[in-house]
Amino acid sequence: MERADYKPGPPVDAAAERGEGDRWTLVFIRDFRHPREKVWGALVEPEQLREWAPFVPDRDLGGAGAATFTMLGGERPEDGPAEVLRVEPPALLVYDWGGDLLRWELEPTGEGPG
């Protein structure tokens, strides 16, 4: 399938949860028909991230530490700081991006591979 032909399905479930102060958490669940290891690659490898994310990191996100995310799609690329905080392949990735915390949890569903 060509990227231009890809049409993602809707999230299985989505919710906004109020956090401390003026912080909110957006939670959504999406089912993929791929092994976790393949989805993990799409979350951490710059070559794969550039295919779907609004940014390209300056390094592989499979290790903790500082990173720079270059935003794409604007009038000009814009660099911003990020920090990979927690990495547990192929199940958990947590990073801070400009003060926002992003947490990716990958769990097998028992349907299809991995």
TrEMBL record:
Transmembrane segments: none
One Pfam family in the UniProt entry: AHSA1
Domain of life: Bacteria
InterPro entries: ASHA1/2-like_C, START-like_dom_sf
Domain Activator of Hsp90 ATPase homologue 1/2-like C-terminal: 34-111
Family the entry assigns: Belongs to the AHA1 family.
Protein name: Activator of Hsp90 ATPase homologue 1/2-like C-terminal domain-containing protein
Organism: Phytohabitans flavus
